[in-house]
Design brief:
190 residues; alpha/beta; Rossmann fold; 5-stranded parallel β-sheet; 53% helix
Length: 190
């Protein structure tokens, strides 16, 4: 990969995809590679509310959590001091049409698409995913969520990467390659 600095003209790179697809891991490595700050929307919400995502789902419901995601995306969009940033989002952020539109507008959005067998392996030891709390139905839940959300991920992203069999650095290199082209062709300096 070229050592040339990535020029995003102040726009962020957002990562979307199902839980376990590697958004946080890839996001942190991409942040290091670009020298941009890393922002995990789930972590920001947990910090602001003072509760885990699991607790927010349990006490206030998924709808409340989704509203918090939208409020955070609006804030990111209206806060140029946060750009450029690498943003890792929650797996269901694309359920809202407004969120999908913001993700398309704010910068370069990448869908890390991972098949269900790999998602099962990657989420096997995780206990903080409220939608996967029933161990017996994890595969069925992941299959259903992927089928349900696939069209929303497609609508929100500028790039889809099937990262099922890729190493983290391969994913980062692919994102950087496509981001350079995207920002060179589509985004004008602010």
């Amino acid at each position: 990969m070229s050592s040339e600095a990535l020029q995003t003209h102040g726009a962020p790179i957002a990562l979307i995809g199902l839980m376990g697809c590697g958004k946080s891991t890839v996001g942190r490595e991409l942040s290091r590679a670009c020298g941009f700050p890393f922002l995990d929307t789930d972590a920001v919400i947990e910090q602001q509310i003072g509760s885990s995502i699991r607790d927010i789902f349990a006490t206030r419901g998924e709808g409340h959590f989704r509203a918090l995601e939208t409020a955070l995306l609006r804030y990111i969009e209206q806060s140029p001091e946060l750009h450029p940033t690498i943003i890792s989002t929650g797996g269901g952020i694309v359920l809202s049409r407004e969120n999908r539109e913001i993700l398309r507008r704010i910068g370069f959005t990448v869908w890390l698409d991972v098949d269900v067998p790999n998602l099962l392996l990657r989420t096997a030891r995780s206990s903080n995913r409220p939608l996967l709390s029933d161990e017996a139905s994890r595969e069925a839940t992941l299959t259903r969520l992927l089928q349900q959300r696939r069209p929303f991920y497609e609508q929100a992203c500028h790039l889809r990467i099937d990262s099922s069999a890729m190493q983290v650095q391969e994913v980062v290199n692919a994102i950087l390659l496509h981001a350079r082209s995207f920002f060179a062709e589509r985004i004008q300096p602010r």
